[in-house]
Specification:
globular, Rossmann fold, alpha/beta
């Protein structure tokens, strides 16, 4: 897979699907997840609708740049945030959500793409929102899926999902794969695919097992704060997708995003959790294809 140095100070690994002459769609993945979480079959399905699909590893994940020189003590970080000592918390985290947004935009620039449709999932939705807020001229459209606005009143995880999210996984391959089954807590209830969860965990472990990056990504996400005021002024055509089974980012996060962004479309999927079940790919791809045809 190719890797490109971008002006934001990272080297970004990516791949692409479809014809480069078609309208580009940049897929932005979420917290701690590698670009392979955008399944190849999903990417091919979207590319078959006449889109040039690009997926990439965020910094501190997969095969992109790692910030090993900046270890984070998450206990100290959470304590600083909890007591309102934001300046101390900021000193612990070597980059921001804006830096992560700049990585994606820098990748587009390196590929010779001036404007693209931006499609982000979970934390990737937050990164995509940040791209649209700060560089709207680069964004043809925004699709924010299973994400939120950064306001603490919306999109909070259930206690059970939060416990799984912050529970460390075993370092050995077999243990890591077995522990991934706990993620079914936030999956679609109708389409829960334990074998699919295990398969992705195995591929991710073999490709780039790197738990150290998770704390830095989490810090960047927490310190980003609320985007509510900026989202209310957003002029980029926006589609919001959220699953009603989502226990990791409550559906209120998606509803609030659509409520804030002028003229945003809201698509609520009754049988989707904090995942992308294969059975719902046609509905998601159709919605994104229609949305991205408008600009």
């Amino acid at each position: 897979m190719p890797i490109i140095d971008v002006p934001s100070g990272a080297s970004i690994t990516y791949d692409s699907f479809g014809d480069a002459a078609d309208p580009p769609v940049l897929l932005v993945m979420g917290f701690g997840a590698q670009m392979i979480s955008w399944h190849e079959d999903f990417c091919h399905m979207l590319a078959a609708r006449g889109r040039y699909v690009i997926r990439y590893d965020n910094r501190d994940c997969g095969l992109s740049t790692k910030f090993d020189a900046c270890p984070v003590d998450m206990g100290q970080f959470i304590a600083a945030v909890s007591t309102g000592d934001i300046s101390t918390a900021q000193e612990m985290i070597p980059y921001t959500l804006q830096d992560m947004a700049d990585d994606g935009l820098g990748l587009l620039t390196a590929l010779g793409i001036t404007r693209a449709h931006i499609f982000g999932s979970s934390m990737g939705g937050m990164i995509a929102q940040t791209m649209a807020i700060t560089r709207p001229e680069r964004c043809l459209t925004l699709t924010s899926m299973m994400s939120s606005t950064g306001e603490p009143e919306y999109g909070q995880p259930s206690p059970e999902a939060q416990q799984v999210l912050f529970s460390p996984k075993p370092a050995d391959r077999d243990g890591y794969i077995s522990a991934s089954e706990r993620e079914a807590i936030w999956a679609s209830r109708r389409y829960t695919d334990i074998e699919g969860i295990r398969e992705l965990a195995a591929r991710s472990y073999d490709r780039a097992y790197y738990p150290a990056g998770i704390g830095r990504q989490l810090g960047a996400m927490i310190l980003a704060g609320s985007r509510a005021e900026a989202l209310a002024k957003l002029t980029v055509p926006t589609l919001v997708i959220h699953g009603l089974d989502d226990t990791l980012i409550d559906p209120s996060g998606g509803k609030r995003t659509a409520e804030l962004v002028p003229h945003a479309q809201l698509m609520l999927l009754a049988d989707m959790g904090h995942d992308r079940p294969r059975e719902l790919w046609p509905a998601i791809v159709d919605a994104v294809a229609i949305h991205t045809a408008r600009a």
